User: Fold these one by one.
Assistant:
Number 1:
Amino acid sequence: MNMLRIAVPTNRPQAVANYLDALAQLGAHGEAGRSFCPSDYSGLLLPGGCDVNPSRYGRDRIAQETTDDDLDALQFDALDRFLAAGRPVFGICRGHQLLNVAFGGTLIQHLQNAENHMSLPSGEDNTHRAVIERKSFVYRIYGDECAVNSSHHQGVEIPGKGLRAVMRSEDGVIEALEHESLPVWSVQWHPERMCFRHRRNDTADGSSVIRFFLENCLK
C-alpha cells in the first residue's frame, strides 16, 4: 500500500497513539492535530474519546456524560471540511457517534444494557458478538457475524440522513454505519485494539476494517 496521510483530529495527541500505530502497521502515516487542510490528506479518521455534547442533537446533558466542547468543535469542523472535499471518512466509537450526529441523527445517552458494552472492572474491553447486514462494507470483510470488543456507554439511536445501520450487537446496539452515497463508514467498536500488538483471540482481526478504509483512501 502506498504511503497515505491520514488526519486524526484531536486536542490530546497522546490519546490517539493506538490509532497512529495501527495505521503505521498498515503502511499509512497518521497525523494527530487540531487543524488539517483536506487537500493534503487522503482521508479522515475520527477516533474514540469522550461523549459528544448532547446539545449537538437537541438533548440535555445527563450525569453519566463526560464532554469536551473544544474537541467537539475541532472534530465537527474537520469532518465538515473533509466531507466537502469528498475525502473518505472513518469513525471509531466516539467518531461513529459524532458522524451520526453530524448527519442529523441522535444518540442514546446511556444504554439500558450499558453493562454489556462498557469496559470490564479490570479496565479491559468487554467483548460480544454482532450480526452483520448483507450487502454492507462489514459483511464484505467479516461475513454474517463476528465478535468485537466494546468500551462505551452510549449508542446510536436514530441514524442520520443517508446513514444505514449495517451491524448490531445481539442486544440491539448499532455497531456500524455506512453512508448510502458518500465514502463514509463507522464502527462502534475499537479495531485499533483488535490488531497487531493488541490482537485478541476472542474477536475478529480489527486490521481488516482499517485496511478497507485505507484502500478506499487510495481510490
Number 2:
Amino acid sequence: MTMTIESLPPVAEMMRQTGLEPKKQFGQNFLFDLNLTGRIARSVPDIKNTTVIEVGPGPAGLTRALLLAGAKKVIAIEKDKTTQPILSQIENASGGKLQVVYADALKYKIEMTDGYALCSNLPYNVGTELLVNWLHKIANGENIKSLTLMFQREVAQRIVAKPCSEQYGRLSVLANLITDCKILFDVPNTAFVPRPKVQSAVVQLIPNKQKIERIGDISVLEKLTAKLFGQRRKMIRGILKIDWTKYELNGTERAENIYPEKFLEIASNIDKNLL
C-alpha cells in the first residue's frame, strides 16, 4: 500500500522506531504538538501557492504540518544526517512535494527563480544569524515572500522591539526597516522534547517593498547599528565622532533612543570609513 502523509505513524513513534534523539550540538528541540505545528503551518500566507523552505526539520513534525496545510512544495534543509530514516519516509509519502537537502543552512545557497516563504522551528544556536542572513537577501532583492519562524521568546521580543525599550537593538532596526513584523503567538517550553529552559514564540516577518527601496547598502546599516549598539550604554558622541546635529541629534543620546528611520538616514549619509 502506498503511504501518504496522513497514514504515517506519529512523530514520536517514528523516532522510537529509528532511534533518533535530539542532539545538543545542533540546538535541537523537537516539537510534537500537532495543534501547534498545524497552527504554525497555517500561518504561512498563501501557502497553497508557495514553495516553503524549512530549516532544521528534525523528525519532520512541522514538515508534515506544512504538507498537510497544502504547501505547493517544501524544501527541508537538515544538517543532521541521522534524521534521514525518518525524512526519507516523509519524502516518499509526500507525492513529490517534499525535497530534503542535507546541508548547513548557514552555507547553503537557495536557488529559486520564483519567490518562496520560510517557515521553521529554528535551531536555537543559529536562529539569529540565519535571520540576519535572510534580511540581507531581502534587502538585496531576493524574493522571499514571508518568514514565519520560531525563536526563543527573548529573541522574538528583540525582533519586534520598539525604540527606548531594553529589548530594542540591532536586530530590531534591521527587521523593522525591511519588513512588517509581529509576534503571532507564544509557545510553552512543555511543547518540546527535550524541554528547553526558555519559552518560545512564533514571529512573522513580511517584506515591505516600500521600505526595501529605501535601504540602499544594508552592509553600512548593519555596521552602523553594530557599532552603536555594541556600546549601548555610552552616548553616541563617545562612539562616533561626527556632527550629530546634521541628523537633528545632539550626541548625548544612546543607541536605544534612535529610531530605525534615523539609523537609515545616518547610514545613507555617513562616511563608510568611520565604520
Number 3:
Amino acid sequence: MAALKTSPLAPPGFPVLPEVAGVRLAAVEANIHYRGRNDVMLAAFDAGTRVAGVLTRSLTASAPVHWCRERLPQGCAGALIVCAGNANAFTGQTGHRHVRETCEAVGAQLGCSPDEVFVASTGVIGDTLPIGRVLDAVPVAAAGLGGNWESAARAIMTTDTFPKGATRTAAIGDTTVRINGFAKGSGMIEPDMATMLAFVFTDAAIPGQVLQDLLVECNQDSFNSITVDSDTSTSDTCLLFASGAAGNAEPVSASDTRLAGFREALEALMQDLAVQVVRDGEGAEKLIEVVVRGAATDAEARVAAKAIANSPLVKTAVAGEDANWGRVVMAVGKSGTRLDQRNLGVSFGGITIASGGGKVEDYDESLVTGHLKGREILIEVELGAGTGTSRVWTCDLTHGYIEINADYRS
C-alpha cells in the first residue's frame, strides 16, 4: 500500500507523554507485513501490575482476543506484545499456537509467566502470522525497553495516518497518579466493547475487579461511541494496566468516592483517543458529532445516533457539504427507536432546520451550508419520546475510503 497522506483532521502533533512508573516500552521492526518501519510493540510491567480489558464480541474473533479473554479473569499482567500488519484471525489452531509461542518467548525474556503476557495483532485477516520474525523480534525489543511512547504508538499502526496518544493526571486520596494511553484505528471501526486496539497505562494501585468495572463504564461513552464504517473488527481490544507504583491507598470498589477524579480522567483520556480514531477515519475530511435527545431510553438514543452516524447517505451528504437534513430523518426512522413525529426536530451546527415534526420554513440554509464547509460538524436530533440521550462520533464518507480499502493488501 502506498504511503497515506496525513488526515486533515489530525491533531498538531503527538502529545508529550511523561513516564508512568512501572511501565517500560519498546518498538522494533520485524517485517511482519510492512517494510522500513517498526511493527512490534512490547511493554513490560512491574510485578503486581493489574489488568482489565474489553474485547470484541465478533464471532470470528482473532486468536489473540481468545488468549486475552481467557486470561483476563486472573487480573495480573507482566507484559503486552502487539504485532501490526497481520491480525492472526481466522488462522485456526496454527494461530492459537503462534500466540502461545509468542507469549512463552516474551515470558522467558522478561521473567514472567506466559499466562501473564497479553497479546494483540492487527492487520490482514486470514494470513498466517510469520511467527519466526515475531520470535526473532522479542529479544531485540526486550533489550530496548524504555519510555518512548510515540514510537510505541507508531508501531501498532496499520492504515492510520498519525499515532494517537493522550495523557491525564488525577488524584486518588492524597496521591497524584498518571494515566497514559495510545490507540490505533482508521477503518473497520464500529467497536462492540472496544476499539480496534487501545492500551491505557496508569501507576495507580487499583484492584483488578475495580479496574475492570471502571474500564467497562468508561468504555461505553468513549470507544463504544464511535463509528467509521459500521464494521466491527475481529481484533477489537482495549486493555488497561495499573502498575500500582504510585502507592495510593487502594479503593474498595468502583463507587469509592476517592476514585471520582480518576474515573473522570480515565473517561476523558479514552474519549480523547476514541475521537482521534474517528479523526483518522479512512479518507475522512470531516469529523461528525451526532447528539440524540428525547429518546425513550439512553439505549434507544444510542441506536438512533448510530443509525445516523452509519448512514452512507448522511455521511456522503456531509462530505458533499449538502444540507440534506431529510437523510437524518430517514436514518432515525429506519432505526426503529420510539419517537413522536409531531415533536421530531433536527439541527445542524446549532441551527434548527426541522421542529415540531416539520421543516422550519424561514431557516437560513446558507448558515447551515457554511457550517458544513468546516472540518467539525454537529448534528442534533430531538425525538420527543422521553429523556434518553446519546452522543457518538463519526466521519464523512469520501472516495478516499474506497481507494484505501481497494488497495489494502497490496
